[in-house]
Specification:
This protein has about 190 residues and is mainly alpha-helical. It has one domain. About 70% of the residues lie in helices and about 0% in strands. The mean pLDDT is about 85.
């Protein structure tokens, strides 16, 4: 599952053309699943706190386009031209290898009705909510929505409805965790003020 990302990113890195747009194009730009996989990987890179405000934007754009019924991903110019650091991307991919190895053992096309055209917008709406939870700069919560989006993206690429549903469940838990942390922070701030 992660081999195409590593292979294409390495080739583009050597050619000096590694950007979000070129990587996604090489992986199949018409696939929302690949876009979600790639963008969630970028979010999992070891970056300074608060950078999810930037790295989650492509996921919001991608899932928003699903909600709007776009036939394929259309990256805005600045996002498409965003340069990627190949060593950091490689580390992020390798960190997820235990997850992808387990997924590869169970991935197969099933419950494919989930990916029908009529379900694309509701699925996009659920993913947009998870991506929004990732977008919020909430301490200790960002990793979970990113991993859940990665799992959903893998499920979409492989047309595995069961894995996609598992990712959505994890995403729902990550949204709940984010909301709980936000409520706790708001309560703590209110207590300090009063």
């Amino acid at each position: 599952m992660s081999l195409p990302i590593l292979r294409n990113s390495r080739a583009q890195h050597r050619a000096g053309t590694l950007t979000l747009g070129t990587l996604l194009t090489a992986l199949g730009e018409t696939s929302f699943g690949w876009a979600i996989v790639v963008f969630s990987l970028v979010t999992l890179l070891p970056l300074p706190p608060g950078t999810t405000l930037l790295t989650a934007l492509p996921l919001l754009v991608t899932t928003g386009q699903m909600v709007l019924g776009y036939p394929h991903v259309k990256l805005p110019g600045p996002l498409g031209r965003l340069r990627l650091d190949h060593p950091m991307l490689r580390r992020a991919v390798l960190r997820l290898r235990p997850v992808t190895r387990r997924l590869e053992r169970i991935l197969k096309p099933r419950y494919t009705r989930l990916f029908s055209r009529q379900n694309e917008r509701p699925l996009g709406a659920l993913l947009f909510i998870i991506a929004f939870a990732l977008f919020l700069p909430v301490p200790l919560s960002g990793w979970f929505p990113a991993v859940s989006l990665f799992i959903v993206g893998v499920g979409i690429v492989e047309r595995d409805g069961l894995v996609t549903c598992a990712g959505l469940c994890l995403g729902g838990l990550s949204v709940l965790l984010t909301a709980t942390i936000l409520v706790s922070l708001a309560a703590g701030a209110d207590a300090l003020i009063h």
